[in-house]
Amino acid sequence: MTTQTLDQQIALWAAEDAAFAAIDKARTAYFALITEIEAANPDNLYLTDESVDHENSSHHAEGTVDYWNARTYSAADAAGSRAEEYGLDINVLVGRSIY
């Protein structure tokens, strides 16, 4: 393997690592939001639904950054709407603006 080829391979690996890190960051943000909503829901009301979030984000390739970002948006939007149905404000429940 030539130095140029090795350098190209290292650059490719670095780009793949960055892509995987971005996906993992988006995935972690989604599950952190779900955990945050559930922790702020002591009455165990129906505020989260991972299956619905999956369906709402299925227009993106599964496992991509866009897919996980869409799931996060879906979770926040749905939790906000569901909380309103109970006469609650999801932003007050979690202590920050998500909806």
What does this structure look like?
The protein has about 100 residues and is mostly helical. The chain has one domain. The chain has four helices and no strands. It is elongated and about 65 Å long. The protein starts with a helix and ends in a 5-residue tail after the last helix.
Report Rg: 18 Å
Largest sheet: none
- What is the typical, i.e. mean, pLDDT? 94
* Discrete helix count: 4
Secondary structure category = mainly alpha
Strand content: under 5%
Q: What general form does the structure show?
A: elongated
- First-residue to last-residue Cα separation: 53 Å
Beta strands, count:
0
Notable characteristics:
99 residues; mainly alpha; 4 helices
Summarize this structure briefly:
By secondary structure, the chain is mainly α. The protein contains four helices and no strands. The chain has helices at 3-39, 50-56, 65-85, 90-94.
